[in-house]
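ok so for the tutorial part 2 we go from a plain amino acid sequence to predicted C-alpha cells. step 1 is just haveing the sequence, like this:
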Amino acid sequence: MPKNKAVGLKKPSKFLNRELSWLEFNQRVLDEAQNPSVPLLERLKFFCISHSNLDEFFEVRVAGLKQELEAGTGERGPDGLTTSQTLRAVQTRARAMVDSAYRLWRGQLVPALAKQGIRFFEVNELPEEDRQWLDSYYRSQVHPVLTPLGIDPAHPFPQLANKTLYLVVHLVIEEEGETKRRFAVVQAPRGIPRLIPLPRDDGSRAYVLVGKMIGHYLSELFPGTQIEGWWSLRVTRNSELYIDEEEVQNLLKAVENELHNRRKGDAVRLELDANCPMDVQKFLQEQLGLGQADLFLVDGPINATRLMAICEGEHAPELRDPPFFAPISRAVRGRIDMFQAIRENDILLHHPYESYDTVVDFLEQAAADPKVLAIKQTLYRTGGDQRIVGALMNAARNGKQVTAVVELKARFDEANNILWARRLEENGVHVTWGLVGYKIHCKMALVVRNDEGTLRRYVHLATGNYNPSTAKLYTDIGLLTCRPEFGEDTTNLFNLLTGISRFQGARRLLVAPFALHNRLLEFIDREIANARRGLPARIILKLNALVDEKSIEALYRASNAGVQIELIIRGTCCLRPGVAGLSDNIRVVSIVDRFLEHSRLYYFENACQPEVWVASADWMPRNFFRRIEISFPIEDGRARERLIEEVLAISLADTAKARLLRPDGTYDWVRPKRGSAPRRSQNEFMDLARKDKGRGLRRNAIGADTVMQLRPGP
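step 2 — the prediction. this is what the C-alpha cells look like for a chain of 714 residues:
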C-alpha cells in the first residue's frame, strides 16, 4: 500500500544541492588519504586526486556559478538555494576541505614519508654536495628559461596562465634618488618538474620544490634591488569551452581557437602562500578581480597534484596496493578466433578485473581479418593509445571502410582528441564530429564481417572509454555481441551520427536524447504499478551521479508506493534518502576505493522477471538531453545473472569502503554488524578474477545482515 505523503516538506527540502554533494564526494576521496589502513603512497595518490578534482570543480562549476551571477541569470535551484547562496556555501566548504587537506599533508603525510626515506628540503637545509648539484641544475636547466616580469607604470600586470605556478616578488629599488617599492612575477617553466629529485644512491628519495629553488636564486634575476619577500601563487581560470556550433563553419577550428582562450578565462580562484602579507594579497586580488572569498591561503605546496610524481615508477612496492594483473576473460581465453567466440555467446566483460586486451584484440583482429569489410567506432577519451587508434589506421590501410566519430569537446581532452583525429585522417580513416549541439558520449564499436556469404555485425558496447590505460583504473562493463537487433540499432545510430537523417528509433538500445529518459521513467512507473498490485518491486541503480529532478521525483513516488530502492552513487547525489513519508525505502551508498567506480547499471525487478541495463549515461539532465548516450539490455541469461549476483550483490554488501548517505547530505561509514567481518567489494572482485570463479554465486550470498535480499520474500 502507498505510504502517506510527506507532511510539511516544501519542494526545495526534497533535494540536496548539486555542488555541495559533489564536494562531499571529494571529501570521501580525501578520507582515503586520511585512512591509515591505506598504503602510504596510495594515500598520497588520493591526496593528489582530491586536489585535481578541486581544480576542475573551480574551473567549471564555480566558474559557471560566477557567470550566472554576472549575467543575472541565476535561479533558485531545486534545493532552494540561490546562485549566490550556493557560491558562498561552496567556497566555505571548499576552504575547509583545503585547510583539512594541508593539515593532513603537514601532520601525517610528510612525517610518514620521511620515515620511509622520502623527504622534502629547503635549499638552505641541504648539505654542500646537494647544494652544488642543485646550483648546477638550476644554472643549466632553469635559469636560461626564466623571465622576470616587472610591474610598474611601463609594465602592466601580466596575464597569468591557468593553473601555472608563479612567484610574486616584492622589491625595493632606488630610482632617481627615491626608494620605490615594486612587484614582479616569475613563472616556473612548464617543462621543469615541480619536484626536483636530488641524486641518491642509498634508495632514499629527496626533493626540492621548484618554487623554493627559484625563490632561492631570485636575487640573480633582479640585480640592484632588495627583495623584501616572495610567495608562490597559482590562479585558476574559467576553462569551459564556449562554442556556438550552429554558427561555426568548422567545428575543429572553433575548438582549437577556444583551447587557446582557455588559459585566459576569467580568474575564479587565487591560491597563495599562507605567509603572504595582507598588502600583497590585496594587490593580487585587485589585479585579478577576485574577492576575499576567492582567496585560498595554502600552508604547503601549491598545486599539490604535482606531488603525484613521488608515486611514479616502481620504487617502494611495500607502500602501495599489491599489484593486480587482470586475467583474460574466460569466455575468450585460449581462443584464436574472436568472432567465433562472439557467435557462440554474448561476452560480458568486467574491467579492470578482466583484461581490456579482449577489446583491443577484437579491434586488432577486425583490422587484420580479410573478411571484415567495415569498422565504425566512437572515440571520447582515447588517451592516444597506439593499439586502439593503430587498429583503426591499420584497418584503413588494409582497404576496409573505417569511420571514427571523435568527440572534440571531451572536457580537458580536446587537444589530444584533435591530434589523434588528424592522425586518423592522414591514415585513411574517415573522421566525423557527430551531431551539432550534442556531445557524443556513447561507447560503441561496430564491425561488419562477411561470414561465409552472410554479412554479420559484431558490436562492442560499454560504459567506459576506449582507453586501455584508464581501463586498468576504472570499473566498467562491456559487452561483445552479434545479436542482429543490436547490430541493426548500432548501424542506425552510426548513420545518424555520420549522416543527415532523423532518428528512426531502436529495437533494443535506449538512446538519449531521444528515448532514454522517458523509458526509464516508464520502468519506474512499472515498478510502482507492481508494488501497488502486491507484486515484487525493486530498483537498483549504480551510477556516477544522480541529479535529474524528474527521475528523483519518480524514485520518491516509487518509494512511497513501497518499491525497495538501492542506489550505488559514486559522486553527486541530489536525492535525499531516508526522509519519512518521502524516501523511506531508498538507501544510497557511495564506494570510493582503489579503482574509480565508473560503470552504470540499471536493475528493475519487473515482477520477478528482472531486467538489467548497462549504460554510458548517468542520470543527469546533460546525459539525458544534451548528449548522445546509449543503454543496452543484457539479454543473455548467464551474463544477466552475473551482473545481478556478482557485480550488484557484492557492491551492495560492501562494509569496508562504502559510505551511507544521510538525509542531511553527509555520509557515514557502512559498518558490518558485530561479529561479521568487513567485506570490501573491489577486493572480492579481484579474488574472483584470480580464482576464475563467481559465475555460480548463490542468490542470497550478499548477506542479509547488511543489505536487503536481491529477491523479496513471498
